[in-house]
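Case study.
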Amino acid sequence: MNATNHQEHQTLSRAVLEIDVNNHAGVMSHVVGLFSRRAYNVDGILCLPLGDSGQSRIWLLVNEDQRLPQMIKQVEKLEDVTGIRRHNADHAVFQNLENFFRV
Amino acid sequence: MTETLTGAQITVRLLERQGIRTLAGIPGGAILPIYDALGQSSLIHHVLARHEQGAGFMAQGMARVSGQPAVCLASSGPGATNLLTAIADAKLDSIPLVAITGQVPKAMIGTDAFQEVDTYGLSIPITKHNFLVSSAEELLEVIPRAFAIAASGRPGPVLIDIPKDVQMQAIEITHWPAPGERQPAPAADAWALSEASGMINAAKRPILYLGGGVVHAGASGLAVKLAEKAGLPTVMTLMALGAMPVDHPLSLGMLGMHAARYTNLALDECDLLIAVGARFDDRATGKVAAFCPQARIIHIDIDPAELDKIKTAHIGITADVQESLNRLLPAVATNARSDWRQRVDSLKAEHPFLMPDVDKPLSHFGLIRTVAACLDDEAVIATDVGQHQMWVAQAYPLRRPRQWLTSGGLGTMGFGVPAAIGAALAEPQRTVVCFTGDGSILMNIQELVTAAEEKVNLKIVLMDNATLGLVHQQQTLFYGERLFASQFKASPDFIKVAQGFGIAAVDLDHATNPCAALIEAISRPGPCLIHASIDAEQKVYPMVPPGAANRDMIGA
Ligand SMILES: Cc1ncc(C[n+]2csc(CCOP(=O)(O)OP(=O)(O)O)c2C)c(N)n1
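After joint prediction, the assembly is written out as follows.
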């Protein structure tokens, strides 16, 4: 991947990222900020705590362009991220929500 | 034994336990409890900066020369915002820093209280990690962790924002946590290392490309050994200068935008690029597609996100550079590589690096070399940002890792003087020289009085061209010579300014024997400003024009 040469990122498809994080007030800004400051659009965000574990899980629906592998590495570097998994766009987590997003 | 201590006292004790003996900052309402506790410390020397950015760069100077995390302090609001530039600078150059800021009491956060600013939010993109502390107990975990994070992996700045009520909260302490230390990185992959050594052994025209990570990892000596064993011509980034002595027979000096022509031309011909602790920065690569077009790439870096970011490596190794080189060395065959080295030597002879007027002590190169002639390798060399910075990078005979302090990634004017003060505070036995420009020095001129107060052994060499030289150069070359806002219509009398701030000053312009005046100024202990007027028409040459390939350099 070549960050400078592929700024015109043609969108291939979408991907779903599943991110385990330590649950505290700043963690959403840390994760989402990585995307926004690179002008990388996040289409969907879900976040809930994982029981009483002190952990939360963030689900992101993102465009899949050439920068995605770099984005995943940057997310992995965050101190409060304990795990990240990548899924295809057809993952059930966002699909079941569509009923709540009708105009 | 149980002690009852406030958050402020705990903070100071934890800093003492981290081994912090000098730190820099400026007090204000929201950090006064910590200052009150700091005043009681017999171990920590607090350096009162005159601007928080100065404090941040002083801490950087300490961290850059020592390799250990250094600390700066600021109050809430404007104190914190003034620190931000120095923190961002540390992020881009991977410098371990722990910045501690005071914050309004927790109950007032979010109310637009006096001197409230969202320091946590502001610092997210420019820190490696940051904390907003919500209780005195939390400090016991957060402070050691901040030091561990700053020093581990790829080093970087960590910010700890501490609300005033947390600083005043008293708790009982029975047990102190261990100081935060650098955590070892996972070991390099054995298969990848053996592939790498195979590639090095098979290469005909390899080049070793060293970045700042080599200096951070304390791996400079190993890198030189590797180069010597395998006969590897070696290039360095701006951040790596000093990792291999520039006059080492294998050194090709700095690569990229202001490299010698032969350096970039050798890279153009190499068949294997061994990138170690380097990140393929645009100032180093020029047009990426044309960078080392024939080369396979081995990339060793402690930060996994640097691998394949700009250039895809054939072998990527995420690991500590020191550990990797240690294991790579025995597997690499001894090879004089005379054909390739002869080719490199002939490139050197055909496209040499020229230093016009170097024998005149008041020319830009002459001044830099005359200063160098007054010093040995124990000296620390800092710069500000501009033409003078690039000339020093090109011409100063740097020979020692951590000898060289410059703002590479962020390129921050104003870096030089306070960073040099920090270096002198951390290593008082050394002479510290700061090359600066008449534009840059004014961006943190107030720290001259800090230098006077601390009596640091700092020599500021002011290369005065009465312009923002690098801007002047760009406008001349790339904006049709339309000079705008790059020439000063008024300049201060820098000699009087320095004297007014309480430091000695020498004007080489009026010296009957400039060399003798320079030697005298450098050998006299304590802070001194050395002023020399230089020609505003001089350019940093050769140079790769914006967007061009490194092989297509212009000038000299
Ligand atoms: C804080 C900051 N503002 C603006 C710039 C843009 N800039 C880069 S070099 C330069 C001129 C530097 O002038 P001076 O310090 O006199 O050094 P010279 O180039 O003349 O050697 C400017 C304005 C910068 N690097 N940093």
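Observations recorded in class. The two ends of chain B are 70 Å apart (CA to CA). Chain B has three domains: 3-172, 190-350, 364-533. We will return to this complex in the next lecture.
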